Amino acid sequence: MKVNKRIKIYLYTRFERLWHWLQALMVTCLIITGLEIHGTYKLFGFQTAVTVHNFIGLTWLIMFAFFVFWLFTTGEWKQYIPTTQKLFSVIRYYSWDIFQGKPHPVQKSTGAKHNPLQRLAYLGISAMLLPIQMITGLLYYLHNDIPQFIPLSALANIHTLVALFLLNFLIIHLYMTTTGHSLFSHISGMITGWEEIYETTKIQDWETKATKKG
Amino acid sequence: MIHRYLIKLSLLIIAAFTIIIFFKANMVYAAKTGEAPGRKLAKQAVKDSKRWSTIDHSKVDALNQRFSSGEEVTEACISCHSEAATQFHKSIHWTWLASGNKNDIRYGKAGLSVNNFCISGNAMEDKGCLSCHTSWNKKGVQGVVNCLKCHNTSGFNFEEAFTDIKGFSGDDDPEIVDIVKEIQEDVKTALVQIDFPNRKSCGDCHFKGGGGDGVKHGDLDTSLVKPNRKLDVHMGIDGKNFTCTRCHTTTDHNIAGRIYTNPAVEKRKSLIEDDLAPKITCVSCHSNAPHKNDSKMNDHTDIVSCQACHIPTYARVNPTKMWWDWTNAGKMKDGKPYVEKGPFGKPVYKSIKGEFKWDKNVVPEYYWFNGSLTSATIDDVIDPAQVVKVSHPVGDGTDPEARIYPFKIHQGKQPYDKINKKLVAPLLSGKKGFWTTFDMNDAIEQGNKTLGIPYSGEFDYVQTTYAFPITHMVAPKENALNCTECHIRENSRLANLTQLYLPGRDKSKALDTIGWLSVIGAILGVFFHGMGRIFIRNGKEK
Ligand code: HEM
Predict the structure, then answer these.
(1) From the list B15, B296, B521, which residue is nearest A50 (CB)?
(2) Tens of pLDDT, residues B68-97
(3) Residues of B in contact with A175 (CB under 8 A)
(4) For B435-465, how does the pLDDT look when each residue is reduced to its tens digit (9 = 90+)?
(5) B422 DSSP assignment
(6) Domains and CATH numbers, chain A
(7) Are strands B354-359 and B347-350 parallel, antiparallel or unpaired?
(8) CA pair distance B468, B393, nearest whole angstrom
(9) Which residues on chain A are in Cβ contact (under 8 Å) with B483?
(10) CA-based, 20 to 30 A from A100: which of A118, B37, B201, B324?
């Protein structure tokens, strides 16, 4: 098999990286404290868990608003526009080709940071799960201060279910970071901003169409 | 290029700081100002606690005489306090009936109400009960008001003094006359110390309800005569040293606080909302947002009573009676009634009363409570196959006035009429009472007669419960309950309460299962995928 030369490109800006890790930290803390509130285990103590959860939850909520603002002013939201092009080859790659040592069918580039499967997953998370979690969390938090049109049990049950879905995402997400050229190449990409790609890889037009500036 | 990111970065940091400062500000403010708002308000409400008076009873002519009977003392009182007895005659402390209407005898200890202790007052025919009635010489409503029953703060035993004086009357032996004079001087000295009732005045009856210290309430016993702050923050002599009447406010000699079918207080209002309301609830002085600003606890006050968390256990110093079974009352040893002592040095059997169980430091039971209690009477039909709730809290989660409230539930077995299916009211004291005859059937016959309720002649014993709201013995705030006494999956104190979602206790089984299956699925998927990569790809690449 022909081995391509690898080069590094600057893929994630400082803001994106900071936001990524901050959000990762906050969501992890929210899951840990949330599940303690849920009664799954005892860790910090219920009262501390509640205080920390509410504080981080609200902080995250407000920061997320800034992130959304950034997304739209920079046009980066277009990175999440779903596409079916090559979606199935990506799926085939992860479920089959990866075991044969074949290359990833879609390479990262500044115009297309995420492969089609990622786009779909991240869109689902960012546009569905996270907003649901924020809304149910906020309503839970404000339950005593606003008209109680949704019963607390419904809010709490959805909030818990989505929390577990997010935990599910986190596990898979973490694992997927190990599927780069080396176990930690994706992670170091998100830390330094520089991702390794194959030099010869041509970025396809459809991939960057949406984000092309000009 | 780089400066653009620097601007964004600094914007983000500024935003983060703004948020953090915003949320911290409240906490810092609360910590600086130190005190929880509820505490501050309450201190304000009671700061003027020095009482003042325009009377010195030792200078009053009407009291400067030799009294030879209680009735004469009362007459002297009334010579100035002209309306006192008239007012008092209308109060529940005198009538022992819940209704102001004398002919309505349904509720009240002199009426058809029963409990599961000594069961009934038998329309004041049971003279044993009358040692706690506010009349002279156990005459009940037929007698004259004994003002000293509540207003005596000297500790002097007036009833005994007057019995002695009466015993000596007509004797002109100069020595006896001297003794009588001496007793009368003692009476006078004690008499001028009359004052508003203190904890002991009320406690002489209310700490010993049911015939002994701590028998009935669980949160009221003689440990409250001189409690420390740890036992009761309000009454503690090293704390606020409240007397009972500090909260149990009084109008026309009617003392607020008794609950039958009507709540003692209709609405929880702070003094700011209504400064003339009876100041009897926690909210009156502490408001309904008593905790510090940032506190989640304030979100609880719409469904949880203050008492639920701030009285972690009751009977913390003296034991209280939890069980009273009349079934085996009347056993004899050598032909004589006897008493058997058990744990805490308390009786576990008395021939005159049956079997008891006592306990200390008891965790309350919790119920929705809107301030009213059901109150069984001997005219109500019962279902003997079930535990009969002689008294039980009223309210449920949908009632906006109801709160989750702590209770002592006193259990026991007491006689009932097998044919009429009604509880019965055995007469206990006196010549025809059970304590003399040890004949339950006859005692019921006699007792029911006093209340005009027919008795079939056949009785058996039925298990019953009686509920006491727990509201005294409020502990210092550091002893209030931890969240996880209730917010926990197993053994929550509120395990039996429905109609609320309790985080930490509750979950949706179905959704939790789906969620956890997805998590386990992810772990397994990742595991096998990883294994696949290690074993298959590595093999191929070589
Ligand atoms: C990734 C995000 C989040 C996760 C994984 C998460 C997870 C959880 C979980 C599992 C619970 C326990 C639910 C129960 O058993 O009743 C919970 C409770 C709660 N969450 Fe979240 N949550 C998140 C975000 C938020 C946000 C943004 C807020 C909004 C401020 C919030 C507010 C709350 C509140 C108020 C509670 C109830 C505990 C309390 O009364 O303080 N959560 N969370």
Answers:
(1) B296
(2) 999 999 999 999 999 999 999 999 999 998
(3) 526, 529-530
(4) 999 999 999 999 999 999 999 999 999 999 9
(5) E
(6) 6-211 (1.20.950)
(7) antiparallel
(8) 9
(9) 45-47, 50
(10) A118
